[in-house]
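INFO batch 0412 | record 1 of 1 | parsing
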Amino acid sequence: MRYNIPMPDNHQSTNTPYIKKVEKPWGYELHFVPEGSPYMGKVLHINGGTRLSLQVHDKKMESWYLLSGKVKMILENSQGELEEVNMEKGYGYTTNINQQHRLVGEEDSDVLEVSTPEIGNTYRLEDDYKRGTETEELRKDPNRGWHK
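INFO prediction complete | emitting tokens
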């Protein structure tokens, strides 16, 4: 059965596979949604014993699903306090705009992430790798300002 759903004027269907690998100091990201889409999808590979920055997004929401491994989340609660939450397989977790968050790989792990588009700033409040705020301009750099 076909549905008559209106599509945007610039919509083009494609059967071409897509993947973009972005190296990170804590592992890497596999982006499986092309840039410029109205949403983002990626797999975060987090090396065991590493952690992402404690960060806040001013325009982006994220949702995560644990695919493999063991990951601890550090999340800001409604009182503004940071709490530790162990990700459980089979459940999704969401952060809101301006909510502090961090992922910690307790072993090599893969996390599925879906989000609003990669827009706005990522403010790094703490970062083990001394990276600063990630702006839309910095995202144009293949490794987003971080180089091995």
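INFO post-check: The chain has a mean pLDDT of 90.
INFO record closed
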